[in-house]
Protein 1
Amino acid sequence: MSTSLAPYHALVWLRDDLRTDDHPALTEAIRLARQHNGRVTAVYILDEALWSRPLGGASRWWLHHSLAALADDLQRLGVPLVLRQGDLRQQLADVVRQGSVQAVLCNRGQTPFLRRCEAAAREALEPLGCPLLAGGGELMVEPDKILTGSGQPYRVFTPFWKALSQHHQPKAPLPEPEALGPGVAPVISGLTLASLALLPSTPDWAGGLRKSWQPGQAGARRCLDAFLQGSVARYGSQRDFPAQPATSRLSPHLRFGELSPRRLWDAVIALHGADGMPFLREVGWREFNHHLLFQWPEMATVPLKPEFTRFPWRDDQREFQRWCRGLTGFPIVDAGQRELWQTGWMHNRVRMIVASFLVKDLLLPWQWGEEWMWDTLVDACPANNPGNWQWVSGCGADAAPYFRVFNPSLQAAKFDSDGLYQRRWVPESAAPGDDLFAAASTRRRYPLPMLDHGAARDRALAALASLKPDP
Ligand code: FAD
């Protein structure tokens, strides 16, 4: 609310950008406040009714801890964090009135949900005469900027990546702004973090997550530093082997914006130059999926290839539950699900095997798998999750061909040949030293394989043959 008598007050509205580094909105708000000898408050508003679907359980756990860490980081800069819950329009308007706020600043949202939030916020702020200043963003490049020669969005990754890496390199990241002053108490009322009820209580299933992760910007930096000093050099050759700690594990930090992709790009190039490109190419998939989501907002439920809406999916909840619980009798699939249960994360190679098993061996809808991972992954992402599920299923952009059906045993033999990963997560599947792949019939406490892969493959190919591309 603009009143010339009140001291200048800028509000930073946070969403999926829970950091202080490379944060255009926070930097600009502090600049404005310094210029006007005023103050800055940050606000996070949890409006679940506005979400297209509620956050999954693992994401809620992450969000709680990420907000706790962010409150401390902001406090160091002299910016209090106010938490609110409920209707975004009402809450934002109330915060602006209570704090006599002159301007609301946010990093521009690039997912359909965040853009919807921005439209709602503008509606709420207009009658108050308070502008919403949206700049920057959470991607390396604006999603409508990378287009083919004929002005269309890319549907194939390789040319997209070529265009991005050669012609649209991300802007340099901004440093964390200097503190505005010592920590101050908020002049706007807010809720406690506990009252947002983001954590699981009965039962508290998050013990494994607590052991595995440090949500927040400091955790992201620690993860990034460890990766830059260690695995990045062997990333290209080892990233497919789930027993190796060869990938960055940065995905949940990127998902919640604790690390910006611009900072990531900059840090990798500064330390490793062109040797970092195999890694950045994978980060390019994140960008690609977000650009796809921008063009196809229904990507989480609707196949990008329309003929797949007629695919003869099966409807077997009992088999789906065996898959979810890691009881398929295929150790590599079950190990992936157990890793997910315990840590909220699964190695990328194993995600592909597990997903292929659901859609091709079991012939169950990819949307079920997408929903399952949405609930259980700490990095559950509105773009990467459906993008990858559509890719594995053969119905997405630049998707794996449907006739390429992963053989779980061969995948295990190739990428976990000594069974280290499988034994770690499914110790009952074989005694140490057993041949994991031959031991199926002698296993005691572990289920027999729930299907014959060869027969399942034939069934999947027959189902595919029933589809004709839409004219
Ligand atoms: P690294 O190999 O270190 O890669 C660095 C970053 O690049 C990742 O953090 C991620 O942001 C990005 N990236 C890497 N591979 C991919 C990819 N294939 N697609 C998109 N971005 C990628 N990733 C998510 O972030 N959220 C999801 O919800 C998600 N769901 C998936 C579901 C399925 C079925 C599959 C097959 C993959 C999914 N992925 C998802 C992609 C990928 O598995 C994870 O990004 C990766 O395993 C995260 O681990 P990392 O950070 O160590 O990756």
Note: The first strand starts at residue 9 and ends at 14.
Protein 2
Amino acid sequence: TQRVLTGITTTGTLHLGNYVGAIRPAIAASREAGVESFFFMADYHALIKCDEPERINRSRLEIAAVWLAAGLDTSRVTFYRQSDIPEIPELTWLLTCITSKGQMNRAHAYKAAVDANVAAGEDPDAGITMGLYSYPILMAADILIFNAHRVPVGKDQVQHIEMARDVAQRFNHQFGKGEEFFVLPEANVEEDVALLPGLDGRKMSKSYDNSIPLFEGGSKGLKEAIARIVTDSRLPGEPKEPEGQALVTIYDAFATPQQRADFRAALRAGLAWGEAKQQLFELIEAEIAPMRARYDALMAHPERIEEILQQGAEKARAIAGPLLARAREAVGLRRFN
Ligand code: TYM
């Protein structure tokens, strides 16, 4: 069997990028024959980016409800909160001890924080915690503790998966005694929508404030966000060049090949941007409205979600526990006898 695993950091409300980059492909993969899946709320990762306890807790609940509303089948998927699996931080330490500092220096998130400090004329490490710095090692532990083969993610996470591979390789080499102790994981990026653009054409991201929320604000919120997608200033009737328009890329993420071709042809023939936005709204709404209704129903019963996650944690620990025990032995933490 192939193991598929992915997580989402619980720092806020999900946007369309999270849905098309991670949730939708992950759920599709979980329905394939011969696949065993592990989907989780990365709430330890959230502590690095957010210091509002209430927001983190709320986000954990919301994201769990999104996964369930999007069709996650708990009889096929092991579904849990990262912080319910103590084996993960323990493995993180074993991996931290074989990871070079130089490799962490090259991690995008850390480098971006340093560059921002330098540009602002501050100490390069100002405000950077060890949590941010060693973030990729915690993520490697998330993946390796279940020996996942495939990790569905957006393009922005690919470097982290490569780092997890490197760490796995180093562990195998140092402690594997010629065997493959950890599976080397591979990133699964949906090539069509590798990185969904936001309202302004940059990567859709909470931190750029350019997101289209998945469920927040309901159908009205979706429509209003779509109205704010930046387009060029061509008037109704004027031919428009579809390629490179954020609006068209977002359309593609929800459309069939035929719809994509028709939409481009209509724009080239002069479709007004306002009308194009209406079509985009209808396309997305058709896909997500049924999920939104399930989401609202799920959010009314947090105690049911809690129960699902408790069961998920139990399933997850039944796998993580034995693997951690083997890893401890491999590095020399054994019983005396
Ligand atoms: P996070 O929470 O930032 O994002 C969750 C998922 O959404 C994808 N994504 C996008 N995909 C396409 N277009 C976009 N504009 C876009 N924005 C976000 C991300 O690529 C990601 O797949 N470190 C991870 C969480 C994590 C994880 C893991 C993932 C922790 N441990 C182990 C996989 C495996 C993160 O912060 O993702």
Note: The beta strands are 2-9, 35-42, 77-81, 150-152, 186-188.
